[in-house]
């Protein structure tokens, strides 16, 4: 959570570092350290009446010191918005799948994965911030909710797929506002070639075909070198092969951007679509890139991609291949294409939302009346031993209030000079997407938030 937040979704749809799990190293993060005992009580108590397990899809999982999934989060698992016919996320999935007709299309893999699969198999360092209990949801130390669709790369490659797309719900503990939701949807795509002369010929032919396709359109591409000292070729790769594969990934994704945004951002000669490539870092690719699209006066980061690390392919038993992969955030793209202003709307079951959409068609969302919002502040002293983490606060609020919490903002934070204790003040903004909330109702919810803060997170209300 940031201290002062930009409110427009188009200015900051997802934090780039958070969304793409780049290697930002925050020394203050706790890595797999147990939650405070008070937090633990709250979590297991909520899930199953102070029991020592959580039940997910009929299976019982033992809880332990790092369990931090909440009932509000577990309740999202069965919804699978990306497969609900007519839902904007499903239409977007189908559109991208139609762009890659000869790829395998996967969309039903379980969100429960081992931390090994989510991180280690993809060469994430042991101290990567994404592993922290403050950032990811753990069922217990051996099972978590995937934080990205890349978690399935090894198993799909191992199954022998060489061209595939995989769409899924992913889970990250995060702040609350109009563009952040702890569950969102990603699509992973990958293509492998044989790492030999025949494979590289196939790659070159595909590059020629894609280049022709792009030449017929108006698209302005700002490129970076495929390989550079700061974005190196992998030691086991022939640099000429890595160049060809990186070129293939760029051409393939440029055609996808043209398909998705060409109509919206303009693909005419007066108003061409502008796409920009940026060097990036991901633990499981090298070279790595991000793609941004210029939309309504701003550059929007759309996806992460790169040449797949050979270690990943070796683990998957396909050491004789090389290729690329990408991961894109569906909500972000859908918010742009459909003009959907608030990420919570994707979860709405209100007919005024759902009836606006038809499978396969992109239409502009017509906002229905916005009901008034109502904010409440809460100030408290954090427990002495462990200052409260904002994500713990947000999960508690979301668990009490569900989707009527629009926004949570930390409006004050100070450390008492004498006692060393931390005082915080949060402003919770309540607004329903489909009805007016009464003041009494909001007061009752706020009272529950306050009492659970006190009883379960051990804070001292001021
Ligand atoms: N998994 C990354 C994320 O969620 C995105 C990503 C980056 C996927 C690079 C890829 C890739 O397949 O090659 O932040």
From TrEMBL:
Q: Where in the cell is it found?
A: Mitochondrion matrix
Give the matching Pfam families: FDX-ACB, tRNA-synt_2d
| EC number per UniProt | 6.1.1.20
In the record, biological process GO terms are:
phenylalanyl-tRNA aminoacylation
Name the keywords, alphabetized: Aminoacyl-tRNA synthetase, ATP-binding, Ligase, Mitochondrion, Nucleotide-binding, Protein biosynthesis, Transit peptide
InterPro entries documented for this protein: aa-tRNA-synth_II, aa-tRNA-synth_II/BPL/LPL, Fdx_antiC-bd, Fdx_antiC-bd_sf, Phe-tRNA-synth_IIc_mito, Phenylalanyl-tRNA_Synthase
Q: Which GO terms describe its molecular function?
A: ATP binding; phenylalanine-tRNA ligase activity; tRNA binding
Recorded catalytic activity of this chain's protein = tRNA(Phe) + L-phenylalanine + ATP = L-phenylalanyl-tRNA(Phe) + AMP + diphosphate + H(+)
Q: What does this protein do?
A: Is responsible for the charging of tRNA(Phe) with phenylalanine in mitochondrial translation.
The protein here is known as: Phenylalanine--tRNA ligase, mitochondrial
Q: Name the species this protein comes from.
A: Sphagnurus paluster
Q: What is the lineage of its organism?
A: Eukaryota, Fungi, Dikarya, Basidiomycota, Agaricomycotina
